[in-house]
Every structure is written in C-alpha cells, then in structure tokens.
Amino acid sequence: HWRCGYWSCPDLGLHLMLRGILVPLITPIQANGLVCGDSVARLIDHVGICADGFVPCLTTGEGWRLTDAQWCDMVQSTLRHAGGRPVVAGIEERTTTQAAARIRKAAELGCTAVIAAKPFGTAVTQDEILAHFRFLADVADVDLLAYNESWLTGNVASQPTLSALTTISRLVAIKESTGIAPTTRWMAEHRSELPALFQGAESLLQMSEEFDGFIVAAANLLPTLCHDLYSALDVGQFRKFKALCQSYGLLSDNWIARIKAELHMQGVLSTPALIGSGGEALGRGAWSPLCASRAP
Hints:
Order of helices and strands: EEEHEHEHEHEHEHEEHHHEE
Radius of gyration: 17 Å
Low-confidence stretches: 4-15, 291-296
Mean pLDDT: 89
Number of strands: 12
Number of helices: 9
Helix content: 25-40%
C-alpha cells in the first residue's frame, strides 16, 4: 500500500496528503520523437516497489524540452499505468503564463496535483517567485507543489520566500533540490512551519529525516534501496546508496543520459534516446544538459 492519501479541508475540499517516495520518471522517447507507452508501463512496474506516486515531466523527465504533444502523452501514459497512485504532473515553463497553460491542461487530463518550477532567469526576484506561485495556485482545481532548484531556472527561493509559501492555500508541498545543505538543515528545523517537504538531492538524503519523502532521480534505477532508505535512514545504507549514485553517474550533469542508458541495458526502455530542444530524439553524444534553456 502506498503512503499518499487525501485530507479534507472544509473551505477548500479534498487535498492530496503526500508522503513517501514520488518517482520523477524518465521520459522514454522513440526515434520518431513519440513517447514510448510500453516503456512507460515497464518503468512504472520497475519502480513499483518504492513508488508512492509518480512525477512525469519534471527535470529527470526532460520536462523543459517536451513539446505540448509529448508532455500530454507522458502525463496520460503515467495516469494510465499508475494503478491508482497519485500522479503529480511536472511543469517546467519559462514564464508564469506558460506554466499556467500547462496546469490547466494537467487538470483536463485528470491530474489532481502539479509540481511547478520557478520562472526561468538569473534576474528573477524573490517577489516574482512568490507572485508566480500565488498565481499558479489559483489557475485550476489542483494542488500545487513548489520546485526549488537552480540547475534549470538559474535562481533559488530564499528562506523567507520558502516560509511565505505557507500562506498559499493550495500549495501543499515543496521539493527542495538546490543541494544546499544549510537550506535542507533550516527546512528540517522549521518543519512544523512549512508545507510537506520532499528532498530532491541524492547527496542530502541523510539530512532529511524530518522530510515527508523523497523525489529523487535515483529512484528510477535504485527503487529497492530508495525504499529501504525512506523506511530507515541507516548510515551504512546511505553510504551504499551514495556509492552506487557515483558509480552510475547520477551526481553528474549528464545524469539523465546515464539513467536512460542503464535502463535501456536492463530492458526497461526501448531506446536510450534523449530529447532535443525541439522535442526531437537525440543520440547520447548530441545532448548537453541545458543548451541555453534558461531565460536571460
């Protein structure tokens, strides 16, 4: 039985109560640029032991590079094979307006929650980050998770901004993926004052006992170990986990390519193809992590 559920708020209705491991799924892409539904089914089966829910189309799923059609296909395939577990659609769009459009589409497809990145750009202010999430929370009748990272967007939500997110009624969780140890420590210390917390940095899982769960790319490759770590953050298990992450290249900038290549070798994915800036399938050597995805 998975650990996610629902809670009822008299003013706002039913909301997701998120706990455990939400797997940020790889997006299996065929040579013709179409999402491989059979590979999605095999991937969900492969990670089933650890999955309390699924997150398609986030960074591990190359969400910022997906065309509208690819994004819809991946979300729909995940919903089809999720077996009743929550599906939290990833939203990685440059602007608030673009993100809002995808949130509306996620609601139409049947998602009850979405996780949205911050606006792209190194010049984005903290006020703009907060306004972004306030606006997105009212776009559709879905719960919202905030995604805090810098690899893709080029900016980071500050501690005061993270605290202010608690004032947004439909914002139910934060994924903390900056990899900044003091931020994780601060969030753990202020756990009772924040929404549900999910650790997204493999290197900081050992500091995340107070968090509600993990959303880590490693769950695609190491589902059993991720399950064991969530059940009990044992020092020996974490050392084994960290060593395997280093061995597979999951702590490098090309972790997506490494995961796809390994899953292809294991027979989970039909091809290891990556996704280009126009949604086209690429060979591993033709891909680079960001390719000017950030806004100025």
